[in-house]
Amino acid sequence: MYKKIDDNDIKYFSSLFDKDHLFTKENISPDYSRDELSQVQHMPEIVLVVSNANEVSEVLKYANEKKIPVTVRGSGTGLVGACVPLEGGILLDMSKMNRILNLDEDNLTLTVEPGVLLMDIYSYVEPKGYFYAPDPGEKTATIGGNISTNAGGMRAVKYGVTRDWVMALEVVLADGTITNFGRSVVKDSTGYSLKNLIIGSEGTLCVITKAILKLIPKPEETISLLVPFVSKELALKAVPSIIKENLDSTCIEFFEKNTIAFAEEYLGRKFPNTKSEAYILLTFDAKTKELLKHNYEKAADICINKLSAIDALIVDTDERKDAVWKARGAFLEAIKASTTEMDECDVVVPRAKVADYINFTLSLEKKYNIRIPSFGHAGDGNLHIYVCRDNLSKDEFKKKLGDIFNEMYDKANEVGGLISGEHGIGLAKMPYMHKLLGDRQIELMRGIKKVFDPNNILNPNKII
Fold it and tell me: What number of helices (H) and strands (E) belong to the chain?
């Protein structure tokens, strides 16, 4: 179906890119063949490191005419194979499009290129008194990747997800046309929201070359409470009650004792409290110390006196903050380091169903005799569940993994949830999404794909 890269193609691209921005054959790094989990691998035929939208436009014009597949890549930190070039072809490396272009302090917006790292956005705006709220766990991910997967993170319970913070996008369509979706305005009722269609589309509809992000004034005060419980059931059942109390929590995270143990071993440092079976980590921010104190003291009182928490530990010293948040940030890598191979499930379920769903995963551990650690954003119902291979053979693991994922995603559907809360669909979750949404919705999505990309060159064999 697709044209293979030949010498004439390489000659053409060499006229557009210098040798430091063009790689072929043995000069292509194996890193370009995989994402963070490396479950699926396939090498591109050519890697082009682009520097601006005009270069992207020229590449797509040529690729569309010749019917060469194009896969877009940022930092490669994804977990569902979305940036893996399954059909070979061209891989567009966006990492050098990493400039912060404009801070508009009157309209509270930040204009960035797609290769800007999430952590660089924070370090640029926060010293100036501004705040970009989305907080995905991988801070070395690019903003283009965050937008392409509609990344969420820990602060979603209060501030929403990436989609809520993108005001406008500059994109290059499959035929090379450069266009803009959205504007730097607060309201928009001007036709279909094409901007929001692009967010979460994982490079299958166009290539993002610029984004205008919303900012707000940075909260003056912030603090966390580490709340231990005697059981995960009590911890998770406390979450809806905490939300109903209207305490304006920024984060409501859940994790178990064994997950802390993985992080301690991985980081080589102790967690402040490891005696309890389960924990809720609450974070609050506010304009004043008085309001902050009111919220966290009320939360502590409710957790201890109404919700059967063992204690409510204030994370207020630099040492304690460092220990707690470094451990929380390392959970994924720590679980990954504890096993020979793993795959992940990031279902999102109604918040009141989180406890039941975690119990369901524990029943799968026993049924399949396999380790399934988890943690999650309890405040928004997004769970991160990992199936670990450990000492199983590759064939045994593959068989069990398929059976477990089928049960997990069926259960998510049964309780009113969805396949992915923030990591996207890519290749890994396609069959499960198709099963959950049904033929008619998939048909609609394919129709949208065909309008944007009639020759199916953009990230083929992903999502739909």
Answer: 15, 18
Residues of the chain with pLDDT under 70: none
Return the structure tokens found at 417. 């949830």
Determine the pLDDT at residue 137: 87
Helices (H), 281-353: 289-305, 318-329, 331-337
pLDDT number for residue 248: 87
Distance CA 53, CA 155 (A): 31
User: Which residue, chain included where needed, has tokens 């917006």?
Assistant: 109
Residue 160 and residue 146 in contact, taking contact as beta carbons nearer than 8 Å: no
C-alpha–C-alpha distance, residues 404 and 384, integer Å:
14
Sequence-distant (6+) residues with CB within 8 A of 67 are 1, 2, 3, 455, 457
Q: Are 154 and 171 in contact (CB under 8 A)?
A: no
pLDDT of the residue at 245: 87
* pLDDT in the model for residue 318: 87
CA distances from 403 to 65, 93, 166, 365, 397 (A): 42, 35, 37, 12, 10
Residue 88 CA to residue 345 CA, distance in Å, equals 26
